[in-house]
Specification:
Length: 484
Amino acid sequence: MAALRLRLPRAPAVATFSSVPCRHAIPQEEPPPPRRPNTAHLNALLTSYGRRGRLRDAQDLFEKMPRRDVISWTALLTAYADNGDPASARLVFDDMPRRNASSWNALLSVYLRAGQPAAAHALFCKMPARNAVSYGAVISGLARAGMLREAEAVFAEVPEQWRDPVGSNALMAGYLRAGELDMALRVFKGMTVKDVISWSAVVDGLCKHGSLSEARKVFETMPERNVVSWTSMIRGYVKLRMHRDGLLLFLDMRRAGVQVNTTTLSVALDACAEDGLVREGIQIHSLIIAMGFETDVFLGDSVIILYSRFGWMVDARRVFACMKWKDIVSWNSLITGYVQHNMVEEAHVLFKLMPEKDAVSWTSMVVGFANRGWMRESVELFEQMPGKDEVAWTAVISSLIANGDYLTLLSASSLHSNLAYAKIAAQKLLEMDPYDATAYTVLSNMFSSAGMKDDEAMLKGLQLSNMASKNAGYSSLIIQDKVA
């Protein structure tokens, strides 16, 4: 007999409460109360606001915090300090109910960054407890400000466990910055623990003082080298115009697997530019692009200088155009390159487009016009120049003398109260025409303005004598410090 198969109705895929008879209401669970952020989370947010310069948000958050600990206070103090408000930072410090070493160190850093080493030293002396950071910061700050004797006194108090390498490195850096190489070497030799910073500082100091062979000896004995020590040694060679030695060391650095940075690459580019090493310069530029540094302003400036030295102004201009950000060095480097290769029109177009100009910008264009023989443009630009430096004066004077335009030279010298050049111009004019009233008048007025009454009277006497005697020889006397 065949088995019976019962066909049961299928249950619905999703059961609903409405289909289920219920005699009693099911109590609804109350939602949990919202979690209030703890102090650690709020402190992290407060620190984040400070780092991003959002001081108002940091202050509002601090005031609304249900509980503040010493980290909260220190975070607010640091926020004001990092954003250049030492007065508010000090107020926060004074209001702190409890302070720890980090709080004291934060205020210490405020004074040091504000250029107040004496105030930092006074605060340091009041600190109830100090750590390695405290000693290192105050020694560095005092040494950087040239207060080496005070730095030495603090160094003498450093506990043995913190002296090397932190305290010693700070004092050594101060000596090197002040040019006291012997004192820095004495500290280095007395260190029982040296780190890569200690060794790198000595290499850099010896290189800057021209002791390249000694620097190389220290460099070769280093137990560990970093990018700073390699770059310092390479820069030492380049500074002493041993460009090929510097580039060879650069290659050694690459072979050693040390990652170069923008400073290293810039120094290598300088070596190529100074020594005319075209192929090597192109290779380093290719390396810059491969490493993703092509947008770096500092390196972009170096590449512009490199190609300008080679006379490749199209390439220099291409690099300039590709730079996302340009500083005044970028503009000046390209303008100077154009001027050096007698491309004055291109330099002037760029000069007029500059968002801001400095003495180098103005001088480059004045020199460019003068070298091209465009004296009217050179003098006009020179007269617009907000600050005249010796290079611009020399360029204008040399060109005016070369073109025999002594009247313009006399006029420019009078306009800018340059008595020395006015004497030269007047002398030349009187050599050509001993009776030139303009030369006498302009120079006499300048003597008068300078309060040189005796010279003014003697010049007028000389003019009368020349007019009376028709003797041109007298005019040669005016270029002396005294007329007679």
